[in-house]
């Protein structure tokens, strides 16, 4: 019999219960006992839902209070020395200090954070040392497994494999690969497998997501070596080797030769690999078929997915098949049933995490009992897919004609950077090391309440406009008092940098409860792109124009770039992504032109997802970067040379795409560099990046307020490698999630740091 399985489930809760518990704990409103009890309730509800849906092998260990990579670094005893401080008296103190930084008793910055492969989920980057030692710290993990087994005896632990764990981290004191630590780490995994055996686990999900990447010979050998050494500790445990987000491609033979009982195939993003896998699967080895898209919200074509499963069953037998999503459902919203504001037609095309569980069990039932057993479900599914294919709402000939008419001239500013720089400096008259912020300012309870009241019709439009103008003016005055050089309006009218635009662009719908985790307690609600996209009217001009009317200092117009809107939305899957991206770019181009005509001299078009959208395999990257760069240039090249274009990127490794970043031809780029202590600047220096750069001098994802001297030190590092006339001073990212007291303290220190370094340059 085929087995219904799952690779992971959203951690946040149907109503973001985990988020609220975490934030209450961080604010001191609840204690550790209440936090852990609330987290346990969310975790156990997830298990119950999966069991009730018919999932046999429910995952355990996929849940986390902050991040699963951080969890595994701690489980193998890899706590950096700075966080072993005796003033961090509890496990939770240490855990959250590593994730968020600390100023409670001991002043510690957060550990580095970056993107999880090509998703908008952020993980904490483990820190390794050449003197690194490891020990097993898995009691809590084993307790969770015992609790899950009470819900489903076949509960399946999720383990982040040793090779991926090492490679996701950084060896801080050596240029060597972190894999030099593998033989020290493997005994800890041997102990873990022995304890999983003792706990009665039959299957273990062995995540080695690096298998989706281009692997060098050393990494291939590390995978062989690790699993061969660990095979002696397996006992009765069967491993399902799991990778996702991409086809295994040339790594497929390697995956099947390893001593594992099953290999997972992401058949959503690599459907072509099934035929090859059926040639390599060994006698007695099982296949885990990732047939349900764990990263998007569209209903699965069950007839098509079932046909793939039937092909595999015919070749090796259904008793050797595990039916699964393509990846963890962490990247999906929780439950479509909670949606009341998406119209019925579009809603009929969608499936969130709980609905995806039903799709898994439908395919499993069809394999085990025949299609007749699920005939009604298959018919309903086919009908919904047909209405989507034929709906007039998904295709707009006029928009497609506009895309077809895009010419090379639309992708280029009139003058080159040196010409533009001269005109912009004459217009803006900024000091050396000009200070600015990335865009958003704190979204206070009053701001959120007013926006909610307006949406419910409880606050008239005119009163809401007056409220926003009052908040904007107060924000402008605060920035002037702090001494910032280039101001922003604060974005109080915006719920999110992507969702806000999705609400105003034709071709999108926005969910009410479609939240997904970005990092820690930070959740985002990606809009859903279902049709061709166009702008109905100006989206940002009135507030930007009002803010500029309040001050003589330049105010940035704030836009989200087309690639980021694409990547941070749930994108239609019935046409190439680049076509959708061009449609968005045309809308942002219209908006940037309108901002300029309204008197805005600095326009920031944020593209933090440019690196995130990069395909995992190098052979696919050139095409992506070409259309992604063209989309940004299409959005930004309709304006005059004296108008300065900024862009912003954060929390990812830029070095491999620096030529593409330079090709964007933005006048100024701001980047996250504080958690890496300006390490990311090295790539820009080696590449000789030609335009202006604003390296972030403090980490906004932490509540910690750094001292002026700390920021002076970072700025000095920057000035040593980048000419001061090409440097800006700014935080790492927007300030939406922070509170005003810490924001004002940090920005005051930032301005003082800029002034001190200016004086040293004089």
Q: Quote the distance from N terminus to C terminus.
A: 77 Å
CATH topology of the largest domain: TIM Barrel
Task: Give the CA-based shape.
Answer: globular
- Poorly predicted residue ranges: none
Identify the CATH class of the largest domain.
Answer: Alpha Beta
Q: What Rg do the Cα atoms give?
A: 26 Å
CATH architecture of the largest domain: Alpha-Beta Barrel
Helical amount = 40-55%
- Main structural class: alpha/beta
Beta-sheet strand percentage?
5-15%
Assembly of the depicted chains = single chain
Looking across the biggest beta sheet, what order are the strands in? 1-12-11-10-9-8-6-2
**pLDDT averaged residue by residue:** 95
Number of strands: 21
Count of helices?
Answer: 27
Largest sheet properties: 8 strands, parallel
Work out the count of structural domains: 2
Structural write-up:
Helices cover 43% and strands 12% of the residues. With 762 residues, it is α/β, with parallel strands linked by helices. The protein has two domains: 3-10 and 45-64 and 117-392, TIM Barrel (Alpha-Beta Barrel), CATH 3.20.20; 420-761, TIM Barrel. It has 27 helices and 21 strands. Strand 8, helix 8 (217-230) and strand 9 form a beta-alpha-beta unit. It has an eight-stranded parallel beta sheet. The mean pLDDT is 95. The longest helix has 22 residues, at 32-53.
